[in-house]
Design brief:
Number of helices: 4
Helix content: 55-70%
Structural class: mainly alpha
Strand order of the largest sheet: 1-2
Distance between the termini: 35 Å
Transmembrane segments: 51-69, 76-93, 99-125
Organism: Streptomyces changanensis
Keywords: Membrane, Signal, Transmembrane, Transmembrane helix
Protein name: Integral membrane protein
Signal peptide: 1-27
Order of helices and strands: HEEHHH
Number of strands: 2
Strand content: under 5%
């Protein structure tokens, strides 16, 4: 039986931790606001306000950047993407039209693109600033 490499364990742990964190952050920022807002002219908006989504993004920026800095690149990209996708699916699945699947897909694609971009930038910026490991006997 093959054992997982030691480098895979931190990646998996980071992925699971960030997925749980993204789900909790979704609940904190977006989970409590479930009803559209009716404007004075009769139109509806929402249920989320822009500041809620911005807060969600900024809250996840720190742990994604930390994971990318620690070189847990897979976890930094896939963890938040999985967590946000699962949270959106759970939050929106009571929609009887079935169109929630499109929204969930857009959350998945958007979070995958955003976490990939942040991870790539952080990894590129910190590549030269982190000390290189020394070879044995050097």
């Amino acid at each position: 039986m093959r054992r997982p490499s030691k480098s895979a364990v931190p990646q998996l742990g980071t992925c699971l931790l960030l997925a749980l964190l993204a789900t909790a952050v979704w609940a904190a920022w977006l989970g409590w606001d479930q009803h559209p807002d009716v404007q004075p002219d009769g139109s509806t908006t929402g249920p989320y306000e822009a500041w809620q989504v911005i807060g969600l993004v900024l809250t996840l920026l720190v742990p994604v950047s930390w994971a990318a800095y620690r070189r847990h690149l897979v976890g930094a990209v896939l963890g938040p993407t999985a967590g946000l996708t699962a949270a959106a699916f759970h939050d929106w699945s009571d929609d009887s039209s079935g169109l929630f699947v499109i929204g969930v897909g857009l959350v998945m694609v958007g979070s995958l693109a955003a976490t990939s971009a942040v991870t790539a930038v952080v990894a590129a910026v910190t590549r030269d600033s982190r000390p290189a490991s020394r070879a044995p006997g050097a």
